Each structure stands twice: as C-alpha cells, then as structure tokens.
Amino acid sequence: MDQVSDDIDQIRQAAEHREADALVAEDRCRPLREELAPLQAQGAFARRRARRKISDLQARLDDAERQAAESRETARRARATATARIATLSARLTAIADRIPLTREQLHAVLVDAERIRNAAAQAQRERSDRARDATRADQAVQRAEEAQALTDLAERKGWPVKHDQAELLRVTVAADTARRPELEKRYQAVQEEYERLARNAQGEIIKEARLVATTLARFRTNRAVFEGPYDVVLIDEAGAATLPEVLLATGKAGRTAVLLGDFMQLGPVIPNALKDQERDDIKRWLLPDVFQHCGIVEPTHAQAHPACVTLTDQHRFGPAVMRLANGLAYGGMLRGGARARGRRPDNDPEIVLIDTDGLHELARAHQTGSRSGWWPAGSLIARALVELHGELGEEAGIVTPYRVQADATLEALRDVEGPGGRPLAEVGTAHTFQGREFDVLVFDTVEGGADSRELWMALAHRQPGANAWMRDGVRLFNVAVTRVRTRLYIIASGERVRGARPGAALAELAALIGTPGVRVLHAKNLITPPHAPTTFRGEFGTALAEVLSRHVEVTDVDDERDFYRTFTDQIRQARRSLWLWAPWVANRVRSLLPELRAAADRGVRITVFIRDDTDQLQRKPTSQSLIADLRAVAHTVVPMYVMHQKIAVIDEHTVMLGSLNALSQSNTREVMLTMRGGYFARKLLEHEHAETFARPPKCGRCKGTEIEIRRWKKSWVWRCYATACKTGPSGRVNAWTREIRLKSGR
C-alpha cells in the first residue's frame, strides 16, 4: 500500500511540474510583449528606424508563444494522464486495502511481538549453550569422580591407607631422630674416610700380590694402585676402540710382554667433536687414527702380512649367511665358520631377514635431525613387534641403530609394552653401545628410507677408493651391528635403497645376498594391512609378526575417503584433553570436520593445527583462506608453517595417526593412514615435532600483530610476521620481522 501511495504522489507531482513549466513558458512572453508594444505604437518614420529591433523582438515573441503553447499542451496531456493513472492506482489501492486483515496499528503490534520472540529465542539459545557447557562440565566431573573412585579402589588393593598410617607413625620417629642426624653424619664421614684409607692400602697390597688384575683403561689411568702395578704381561682387549695415548700408557707398564686384542674393522675410539674439529696436526697424527692404523693395518691383507700380527679367522657366533655378509663388508673372505656356521638351517628359518619398508609411505620417511642422521616411526614400530615376538619364544633380542635419536624413539615405543618388572622388552642402543655384546636375535634399524628420504649414513658407507673417514667408519659401524647376532638378524631398510646401492657400498653387500640361502625379504606393507585387505603370503614367522603388529597398530586404508574419516571422527569424539593435527592443505573436506572439532573444543579438548603458509599456491586461494578462517574460529591455535609436509594426528598424547593422507583436504586419492596406540611413542613424536614450542607463537616485535608463521632458515627455526603492511618496506621489498625459536634440542 505504501508503494502504491508513493506512486500516486509521484504521478501527481509530475503533472504539477509540467503545469509549472507551462506557466514559466507563458511568463517569458510577458516582458517581450511589453517591450514590443511601445515600438509598434510609434509613427511610421520611427517604426522604420526601429524595424530591425521590432523584427527581432517579434521573432523572439513568436518563439516564446510557440514554446508556451507547447508547454500548455504538454501540461494538459500530463494532467489527463495523471488523472487516469491516479484513478487506476486509487482503485488498486482500495482493492489492496480491502484484502489486508490488519490495520497499521495492528501490524505494528505484530512486528513488536515478532522482535520480542526473536530476542527470547536468542536468549534461549544462549541458555542452551550454557546448559550444554554445564552438562560437559558435569560429565567431566563424573569422569574425574570415576577416576578418583578407581584410584581409591587401587589404593585399597595396594594397602596404601595402611601404609599412610605407618608413614605418619614413622614421621614421629624421624622427627625424633633428626636431632641426632648431624652427629651421626659426622661419625659416618669419619668412618668412611678411614674405610677409604684402609681400602686404598689394602687394594695396593692386593694388587701387588695378585696374579691377575682386570680393569678398564679409564680406571687404569685414574687409580694409583692399579696404575703402579707392577705387571709382567699387559693384555688390552678391544684395543681398536682405545686411543693411542691410552694404549701406550698401559703397555708401558708391561715388564715382559704387551698384547693388543681387537678388530680393526669394528668401531674406533670415541673422540669428542671439539677435538675432531680442531685443525691441529698433532691431534690428526696421534689421536684420531686408531692403534691398528698406527701399525699400518687398515685392510685384512695388511693384518696377514704384518709380522707382529696374528689373525684369528675362525668365528663361532653366527651362521653362514651373516658370515658371508661380514666377509663382504669387512674381512675380504678371510673369516671362517665354526660348527654354528657349518650347521644347516631349515628353509623356513632364515638367518637374515630384510624388512623392506617400501610402501609404508610417511611411516617409513626418515625425519632428519642432522645432515646425515635422523629417525623414523617404521623402525620403532617394527622393532617393537620383533622383540615382542621373540620374547614370547624365550629368545633374547637387542635393537641397534646408528643414531641416538632413533634409539631413544625405539626405547620410548618399547615402554608402551614393558616387560616384567617395568623393564623394556629389549636393550636398545647405538653400535658403540653394543660393541663386544651378542644377542640371540638382533634387529639392525638402518633408518634408510626410500626415494622420498635423503640418503643417510648407512647408505653412503663404503670403503672404495675416495672414501673419507666418515664413510669408512660407516662400514665399521655396519659390521659391528650385524655381527652382534647369534641366530637371526633382522635389517630394517628400504628395499629400493638396498637394491639401488652403489657397487662397493655396505648396502650393496646386503643386496648381493638377497635370494641366496639363509636370506629372505619380508615386505612390511604386507605385515601392516587393513583388516579387510586380502592376505598375501607371509610365511610362518611373517604371519606371527603380523599378528603381533596388529596388537599395537590399526590400519586405515583409504579407497573412497570414508574409512579413514570414520576412524578419525571416532577419535575426535573420544578425545578428552588434546588434539594435535599436522595437515598441509585446507580444502572443502574441513567443512565436514568442523562440527566435530567444535564439539570437541566445547568439551575442553585443546585443538592445535599446523598448516602450510599462504605462499603455497593452493593455500592462497580465496576459498582456502575462507576455510582457514573457519578453522581458526574453532581451533585454539592454527600455526602456518613454510613448506611443511607432515600428515599426523595425535589424540590425548596416546593415539597417533600417521601416513600419507592430508586430513583437512583429502578428496578422492588413495592414501594409507596407520593408527598407533602408546603414550611414550606419541610423546616422542610430539617432542620431535617441537609441538609445545611451535604451538605458542609470539606477537610480532614490530607491529605487535598475531599473524605469525614458522620458517626454517639454515639450521634454525624462526618466527616470522607475514602481515603485509608489516613485512613490506617503503621500497616495496620484503623485510619481515623474525625471531629465532629457542628449542630444547635441535633438529
């Protein structure tokens, strides 16, 4: 109705405008007539003299009268049209008014009621959210109560209340004895000093009278009684692992004979990097070479040719397959076998098993912690299953790896399946730790991945011409690792890397044994498979190993993207404390996850997400930026990282999902994700990714903004402000604010 009324007013005003135009046109004629009339009233002579002006005025008057006549006609037609149109609209207005059941006052009242209802609905929604949070807090309180009840039950079973009462009684006794403690400590100190004096004297007398003294080189040079001797014969075992000054100090105490026992193809002395890095000729000449090198023994042929060297070529520890590998690596065929090496093994009982990690995707990608060192999840996972399998058979197993960081990761994984007494199921260490040791079963974790991983130390180890000391030491380490075994040696490595090893490399020696008696390849991707996948032939111990792996690992094989997201959604719903997510790209897939993430955040789960920064061409798209904004509205922290590629999810620091699938963008590609359970491994992974540190970006030191990303420059990580106004200088060049990230340990 208002619109029609407005139309009538506009039409009426338009007609009035036309009539006003006609009046204006008529008014223009009046001054012309008034000016022309006196001229025409003059005499003939005067009119003749003013004829030009009279003619001009007459022409202007005629034109003005013509325009006035046209304006009057236009105004008349406009008025007629307006009258007809107004009549039509008035009829329409009447018809509309007849159909409206409410008056203006009634309609206003309805609108007021509607606004009141909207406000009430919004208040109800807020109250509903408050009640939902109250319900979540109540659920959490119930969970805490249940945990407290469980702890109470455990305390009762363990007898802790009784022990607490006993402790309270003991505190009274302790308080009474506290006054006597200073005097007792003083008397203890005096007795201890007297004991040490007598022990030194007795030790010296015992050593002087002893026929045999066994000690370490370190104790030899630090214990005066041991150092003074005297000795007729000095035997130094593992001489290759000692420095020349240590050996000379000990052999100098020999009265008649000194004998050095050792293997020049095993690891040499551990020299601090601070000494190695010094470009001093005396250190290079006397400290860095081992004892055998000082004697001119570097190759097996040198040992045989040396007049003062006796070579012991018979070994009685391992079988023929490992002996062939050791001969190829280090001994040039000189090593011969005893009864164990000559014994025949059943065909289904291989001596060397290469666990081929190809096909495990992200799980088998080496994470570098140095130029040629690193760690990977595949080794920790498979080694854990192997030692558990052989532990059930009553066999002792050891796990050796070139890198301390991998040994630490594997030890953390083993703690999730601790043996009796809370001890790990197996010893884990580097080759330096295991030199001189032996095990029934040995797992050698090389940390050598496939084409998507950089070649690390074991891939570059060789003794060919041109090899530097680091490469030759790699062969010695490889040799130490594989010769610790008695019955079965497992080597975890990429089959592609082993088969593609350069001639003469340590891995090439292993590759040459594949297909020979006693050597078998087991594909890890056939051991770690989804429940619904067809089972491939694994053999007896391969089937047993797959069964052990299934206790600790759930595999989601993604064909149509539904399987993984069903598992992932369940994990999000079960989360109670934290969700860490590394997903490089964000796409429409995130929309289906946002409700689950929001529900998790509402019940107190802290959500931290790491994504690629917007220098990536996919991330900088407007659609992706909009989705990232939606993600930031739900997650507590979203941190951009430059050129990241990890695909990881860690739930409650206990469950790890790891593989090749990008959880926030995957659509229709076929990927693999593994779900592993274990708090130690989860925490080790978070530690390696510097999760806690990276999840706390600072404000920009220049603009005080929060648009902060992570970048890696050379060997350090830095915070970097990516706000356009802040990072762009007056000249238009990028000059972003950065700050080095201080880490507890480098990576």
UniProtKB/TrEMBL annotation:
PROSITE patterns: PLD. Residues 47-81, 138-201 form a coiled coil. Residues 640-667 form the PLD phosphodiesterase domain. Keywords: ATP-binding, Coiled coil, Helicase, Hydrolase, Nucleotide-binding. Belongs to the DNA2/NAM7 helicase family. This is AAA domain-containing protein. It comes from Streptomyces litchfieldiae.
